[in-house]
Amino acid sequence: MPKRKDIKKILIIGSGPIIIGQACEFDYSGAQACKALRAEGYEVVLVNSNPATIMTDPEMADRTYIEPLTKEYVEGIIALEKPDAILPTVGGQTALNLAVELAESGILEKYKVEMIGASLRAIKVAEDRLWFKDACRRLGLDVPASALVNNAQDALRLCDQLGFPLVIRPSFTLGGTGGSIAYNKEEFAEAIVQALDLSPVHEALVEESVLGWKEYELEVMRDFRDNFVVICTIENFDPMGVHTGDSITVAPAQTLTDKEYQRMRDAAGAIIREVGVETGGSNIQFAIDPVSGRMIVIEMNPRVSRSSALASKATGFPIAKIAARLAVGMTLDEISNDITKKTPACFEPTIDYVVAKIPKWQFEKFPGADSALGTQMKSVGEVMAIGRTFKEALQKGIRSLEPSSPWRAPAETPDSLLREKLATPRPDRIHWLLVALERGLQASEVFELTKIDPWFIGQLEEIVAMNRRVASVTVETASKDLLREAKRHGMSDEQLAQIWKTAASAVRLQRARWGVAPVFKRVDTCAAEFESYTPYLYSTYEDEDESDPQARAKVMILGSGPNRIGQGIEFDYCCCHASFALREDGFETIMVNCNPETVSTDYDTSDRLYFEPLTLEDVLAIVEKEKPQGVIVQYGGQTPLNLAMELKRNGVPIVGTAPESIDLAEDRRRFGRLLEELGIPQPRNGTALVPEEAARVAAEIGLPVLVRPSYVLGGRAMVIAYDVNTVQEYVAQAALMGTAKPVLIDQFLEEATEVDVDALSDGTDVVIGGIMEHIEEAGIHSGDSSCVLPPVSLAPAILDTIRSYTQRLAKALKVVGLMNVQYAIQRETVYVLEVNPRASRTVPYVSKATGVPLAKVAARLMMGKMLAEMKLPLVTHNGVSEIAVHDFYSVKSPVFPFNKFRGVDTILGPEMRSTGEVMGTSKSFGLAFAKAQLAAGQKLPRNGTVFLSVNDRDKRQVGSLGKELVALGFRLLATRGTAAALQGAGLEAEAVFKVNEGRPNIVDLIKTGKIDLVINTPLGRESFYDEKSIRRAAIRYNIPCITTLSAAHAATRGIGAMHEQGIEVAALQDLHRAGARVHEEKDAGE
Amino acid sequence: MVCLTYPHIGNTGTNQNDEESPKPYIESLIVREFSQLTSNYRSEESAQLYLNRHEIPVIWDIDTRALVLHIRKMGALRGIVATDGTSAEQCIAEARALPSMAGQELASRVSCKKSYEWNRGSIELALPPVLPGKKEQAEERRLRVVAYDFGIKQNILRMLVDNRCDVQVVPALTAAKDVLGLKPDGVFLSNGPGDPEPAQYAVENIRALLGRVPIFGICLGHQLCGLALGGKTFKLKFGHHGSNHPVKNLLTEKVEITAQNHGFCVDPDSLPAKDAEITHVNLNDGTNEGIRHRTMPLFSVQYHPEASPGPHDSHYLFGQFTKLMKEFK
Fold first, then answer.
1. ipTM, 2 decimals?
2. What is the CATH number of domain A535-659?
3. What are residue B293's DSSP bridge partners?
4. Which of A270, A517, A1035, B223 could in theory staple to B130 by disulfide, Cβ–Cβ 3.0 to 4.6 A?
5. Nearest CA to CA, how far is A291 from chain B (Å)?
6. Residues B166-188, mean pLDDT to the nearest whole number
7. Residue A217, pLDDT score
8. What is the mean pLDDT of residues A561-578?
């Protein structure tokens, strides 16, 4: 069927900020949908609150709205744009839920907008667990026994019927939020309360457990003509019980016979038809009892998902792009396969390699969180690796994670602990499995403990046997055959070097001597049956190489690897932009990355894609093959930067700022000297290796101090210490971790304002890209702080100082490309906190705020263009060029994963913990802030009751805040001290009990819905427990909680702006046009 | 010799229920990695033991993708497996001397020697497979089908039984009059090896049966139908082998994902348009995948609707065959 002509304008809903369970994969799918629909001639309107995405680039859609993903704001956009249709299936659960809300509240009907890609009915059947089960039962398919409950009493009665263990799943939550497994009544009672709380409809499913069964996923597509294809099968290495997002998964399925697979395929086809997903992609999960073969249906996602992004990368079949075309009425046989060109998209990809996906967790960021894996997803990112065998893929995957060097179990681990490590899945289980087999634990026992399929355990045994054979020789005596076999098992040079107690470079030398080098094979959707036209490559140790490098001028871009807190989508954004810009300039671009969620690993982002681990060994192998003119290392965050010096030593041509400058900026002593020479102040600082030294240094500097390890991104393991003991403890712990690197100790500037600056330099000229003022005070990690561009409270003289310092720093460091500087302003003095001569997290946000794509410009600078020839919209302040800002404010706010980690304190500090960010724009700062907060899920109340509890320092200023709140009509509640301070300022404030003072206390009030906004600034250690429980209660009951006074002031301005202005939306394209008018609609939602 | 593109082979072992013929007919299997270990609840014998028992050598640990690319460029090749130290030159010379598949009549060589009845339907796994519309209707009369064995896959027989047919399998050389003597409701023409053109005996038999009894052909059976209607066949460069070939049904405009295994093809332009209607076409290369007679009860497909291994999208053709038989009464 040809595409529909009755639709002209389509609204695509994005997935919002990166959160656990919803990451870059939806930028990938949304960007693909935008491209596909525009290529078919449709006008595309996009809404997404996340500025760090490629999809929100103003070139990707005809109209781009960076606005909160709420019913009211999207209605505002619909009213303005009047789209014919809305596509909700490429923006994850967020978009799907929002579309349901828009449909059910009559908004779609009111504006005559058709939902395409999935009907309301199909979404509801697929998403409602009971309806879905009914649908499966109608088809004669087996599902786990279960019941839906909406109160704890009914739930407890169910236990007796179903028996333990039981799975508890709250309805309508993301990534299994709030899901858990209970083994007894006590656990169950706790879990069910939490699940009901978390469900937006106060409902949860209690289900028979199929723990330990084999778990599979099918990625399927269907079109209007009822053509149905399976794109990919995925088998979970970790059996049922671990969320698929937290499982190691493998494509294709390894342990199904054709009969079992076809039964699953038939079931998937029947389900998608019964549920009524007329077009697009779906993901359907199954479990199989390994003993009887009984197959049950677990669940379905009637949309593009994380797994479908993985499936797209695993097969080369672009599910989202095709799904978008199917949504407008095209059929699979009308769409051609991009890779083979001659064959249609209506087929089932076949693969002649193995793909392994391994999740990336960061429990070290959340002390107190339980690292046991269960039905709630806890990983923050993932890597994918391709090999010709499972062994090779798995080992490549393990080294794609960082740290990439092989993990070793402590030698003294007793067997009982080993068994415990196998029985309870945690992030490091794969390593323990290898240790157990190395120790000689029988495969059968490993199976009993883990229920991991014996075939996988057999593969691990083969890896262990290979290690043993390698250990029997040395690097000098290893034969060519043995070396090649070890490489064919996926062993890295680093791994071999560890076994042989030598350097990886020695292994590399030996490989070169024997001629043992990888070849590159193509991912082509068809196992070589047809010629492939897209160089999408992976390395392996085989005979034939298919890379076919070209003789063009080429640039290689090193990506950022798995998503982490502090290193996420922002860096992928930069890498993609480098590729886009340099492609436009006629270079052949070569992308290297191992993160399947990203736009950078889309085969049409760059001319050539190497889906490879970002380790020295793997990168060097590609460089040797491609011989690029330049390699960009400053866009992928710390991952490629860590390789920069070694790459350079190996003769790799690094373009842009020299690795030596990057090194200089990170070397405290040398950098300190440089600042002295430049006459730029920095906080007093020192380093220490042992506790005694630390105490001395801290005393010299003066407390409080900021303590942290060297060489980090995202402020890992930083603390602010108010006493010497804390400093000493910290250093002692760091020494225990075995890092021979010194601990850094800095003067902590209290009550300072922090500022981030992104700048561009070509080595001669410097241009300020953007100056961002943090809304939280210094001390909160810059990634966790809200900030505003342009600044709102800095004096012109201060700004000029910042500009001048930035220019001097860029010149001194001979920056070519991007540079980020963090400043703290305390009492008129501007201090430099940190300089990073590389792309920063704020680059996409600044680009969206200013309309100048900084990453593209900087990529061109790295390849030799000059700022003078770029025709940038510049203004000059005191002799420093700066990109002109528009007459609107852009506020960036972070989004935190606290609801995923029970028991973790939510207080912000120097350790970055946010997973994503949103942006709000408006002509008024208050409204921009309020929109950003709303987009981040902090719904600021327009009226009601505010609870205040502030520390002594803040008590001096709480009066003015109280006045603003009262003027807006709020009632004030406060703890005794704060109430006294408020009363002292002439305000009415009711005192309430702290948690340990009596009942009802503040937590009781939060639980009973009496509080609409919490303002709680940390008092310090003494009231730690009390505050923690207040903040946890606020998170749990979804009440906005503000932890700094400056943010509280911004919030009151925001609430004030909401009172005055109502819903206001504006397209980026209009905002970027000079003199743009901001569209306004007074309280459209009311 | 068969080279498999997927690198891990033998993971799930073998079992009797999944067998498609009394014994494997390949000369050698070429794989990247052959599993040392079997993991499947239905497995009865490891793939290694199974092939050992049938004396089929396995070549493994080679770059199978390189071999596939070579075959794609060169077309299907003749080959020799030697382990006795014969020189490469000698082996190449011997392989070159092997007869090409073109012109070889192999169906009668692999066919059963004696007629037999088949009454086993598909096995059920732990749960019945989902087959919409496959509900048993007890009151219905069973149909009698005579199946020509040109190298028949057993799942075709199982599918016929599943569709309420009593099946009599007959050798390839059975004369049409003897088949009619069995008073069948329909005649089935099976898949099989070799070049269809030299199998003139079968072409003659089909011509003699045409119009007197409903006919359904699969694979070689389809090619023989093409020849019987006056068409020609030709050899493909490297054939169609696999379970992911898209085939469009021109009558319904729906696409089926099909299992295929053939080296020869019916030339659709050679068919007399007044008799033959093209019903199915391969979307990858546009080759013919199915025909039917415009006036007589005959239809055939080039691919394997019985699958096993392969998707079940084309099972409907068995229903179409029983419908044709019932209507012919």
1. 0.96
2. 3.40.50.20
3. B276
4. A270
5. 6
6. 97
7. 97
8. 95
Q: Where are the beta strands (DSSP E) in A52-109?
A: 63-65, 85-87
Residue A680, amino acid? I
pLDDT single digits (tens) A184-200: 888 998 889 888 888 87
How close, in Å, is residue B178 to chain A by CA atoms? 36
The residue in chain A having the minimum alpha-carbon distance to the alpha carbon of residue B311 is: A262
Contacts of A465 in chain B (CB under 8 A): none
The enclosing domain of B178 has a CATH number of 3.40.50.880
Asked if pLDDT for residue A614 goes beyond 80, the answer is yes
Residue B42 pLDDT exceeds 80: yes
Both B171 and B233 in a single domain? yes
**Residues of A in Cβ contact (< 8 Å) with B136:** none
Calpha distance A509→A811 (Å, rounded):
39
B84-123: pLDDT as tens digits: 999 999 999 999 999 888 899 999 999 999 999 999 999 8
Kindly list the residues from chain A whose CB atom is less than 8 angstroms away from the CB atom of residue B125. Answer: 259-260, 263, 293, 295
Contact B69 A388 (CB under 8 A): no
- The chain A residue lying nearest B286, using CA atoms, is A343
B316 lies in the same domain as B199: yes
Chain B residues within 8 A of A343 when measuring between CB atoms: 246, 283-284
A226, A263, A348 ranked by CB distance to B125: nearest: A263
Average pLDDT over residues A583-589: 97
Pick A1027 or A251 by higher pLDDT: A251
B297-327 as b/e: b if 16+ CB within 10 A: bbbbbbbbbbbbbbbbbbbbbbebbbebbee
Ranking A536-545, B92-101, B190-199 by mean pLDDT, the lowest is B92-101
* From B262, B293, B304, B315, active-site residue: B304
The answer to whether residue B56 scores a pLDDT higher than 80 is yes
Which of B36, B123, B130 lies at the smallest CB-CB distance from A458? B36
The amino acid at residue A38 is: R
**Is B102 inside a domain boundary?**
no
Does residue B14 carry a pLDDT above 70?
yes
Q: Write out pLDDT tens, residues A965-979.
A: 999 999 999 999 999
A457: Cβ contacts below 8 Å, ≥ 6 apart: A433, A437, A443, A446, A447, A450
Homologous superfamily of A894-1061:
Methylglyoxal synthase-like domain (3.40.50.1380)
Nearest CA in chain B to A521: B65
What does the pLDDT average to over B254-271? 97
Q: What is the DSSP string of A176-210?
A: GTT-EEESSHHHHHHHHHHHHHHSTTS-EEEEE--
Fold of A684-747: Dna Ligase; domain 1 (3.30.1490)
Chains A, B: CB contacts under 8 A, how many?
166
State how far residue B169 is from chain A, nearest Cα, in angstroms. Answer: 24
Are A388 and B7 a contacting pair at CB < 8 A? Answer: yes
CB-count burial class (<10 Å; 0-12, 13-18, 19+) for A375: buried
Q: What's the CATH code, domain A145-209?
A: 3.30.1490.20
- Residues of chain B contacting A292 with CB distance shorter than 8 Å: 41, 126
Please count the other Cβ atoms lying within 10 Å of the Cβ belonging to residue A447: 18
Same domain, B37 and B176: no
**In terms of residue numbers, what domain contains B295?**
107-328
A255 min Cα distance to partner chain B (Å): 6
Which residues have C-beta within 8 Å of that of residue A487, sequence separation ≥ 6?
A: A511, A516, A518, A541
Fold of A9-124: Rossmann fold (3.40.50)
Q: What is the pLDDT of residues A647-667, one digit of tens each?
A: 999 999 999 999 999 999 988
Average pLDDT in the B180-192 region? 97
pTM attached to this predicted model: 0.93
For residue B140, what are its two tokens?
């219905």
CATH of domain A666-679+750-886: 3.30.470.20
Q: Which of the two residues, A782 and A832, has the higher pLDDT score?
A: A832
Does the annotation count B306 as an active-site position?
Answer: yes
Closest CB to B131: pick one of A254, A266, A527.
Answer: A266
